[in-house]
Specification:
Elements (H helix, E strand, L loop, with lengths): L2 E4 L9 H14 L8 H7 L4 H8 L5 H21 L9 H9 L4 E5 L5 H9 L7 E4 H4 L3 H11 L5 E5 L2 H10 L3 E4 L11 E3 L8
Parallel strand pairs: 1-2, 1-4, 2-3, 4-5, 5-6
Helix pairs in contact: 1-2, 1-4, 3-4, 8-9
Protein name: HAD family hydrolase
GO molecular function: phosphoglycolate phosphatase activity
InterPro entries: HAD-like_hydrolase_sf, HAD-like_sf, HAD-SF_hydro_IA, HAD_2, HAD_sf, PGP-like_dom2
């Protein structure tokens, strides 16, 4: 192993309480009277924004759905920027700098553009993250983005740390081992390593 590639939601922090409020406001403002819950988001996070939109708003036509999801993302960024965001899982902000002393630490997420930057800004972890990539920047799935970041940074033996079955599938697609963050949102079918708390990566 020569590097760690990390997922964000369900692995590094849980933004679902804040995002649920933001998306509910956005949808209502956009004329869609429905409430988005934390539990809904935990089942959706980890998927691309396109798929999230299809599952969250199945009755809307594609153009209307995209319009509503863009509004959701805008409100999400505003809410996260205004909130203190003390929502990292225990040990994340202490562990990443220690990992970065020994290995490159990178991030790949299916999130929209700007979300990882906001995460780094709110947590102060930017100096310890070598590189990052997301669906919003490339419109590629997570497996493709993992491969892209491996090639871009000349990584030889990385591992991917995530919490959902989608994360496991992405790691398999990229041909690298998957470490399951079992405290997160999902339960993948299998894994190559398992952590019950983030600081266990130091072992």
């Amino acid at each position: 192993m020569d590097s760690f590639i990390l997922d964000v939601d369900g692995t590094l922090w849980d933004s679902t309480p804040i995002v649920a409020r933001a998306w509910t406001k956005a949808l209502r403002e956009g004329g869609c009277e429905r409430e988005v819950t934390q539990e809904q988001l935990k089942g959706l996070f980890g998927k691309t924004m396109k798929v999230i939109g299809e599952e969250l708003l199945p009755d809307e036509n594609p153009e209307r759905r995209q319009e509503l999801m863009e509004l959701c993302c805008r409100y999400e960024h505003e809410y996260l920027r205004e909130d203190p965001c003390r929502i990292c899982y225990p040990g994340v902000t202490e562990t990443i700098p220690k990992l970065a002393e020994r290995f490159p630490v990178l991030i790949v997420s299916n999130c929209q553009s700007g979300y990882i930057e906001l995460f780094l800004e709110k947590t102060g972890l930017g100096p310890w993250i070598t590189d990052f990539e997301c669906y919003g920047n490339t419109r590629k799935n997570k497996g493709e983005n993992i491969r892209m970041i491996i090639e871009r940074n000349h990584l030889k033996d990385p591992v991917y740390v995530g919490d959902t079955n989608g994360d496991r599938e992405a790691a398999r697609e990229a041909g690298i081992p998957f470490v399951w963050a079992s405290y997160g949102f999902g339960e993948p079918g299998d894994w190559d390593g398992r952590i019950k708390k983030f600081s266990e990566l130091l072992k």
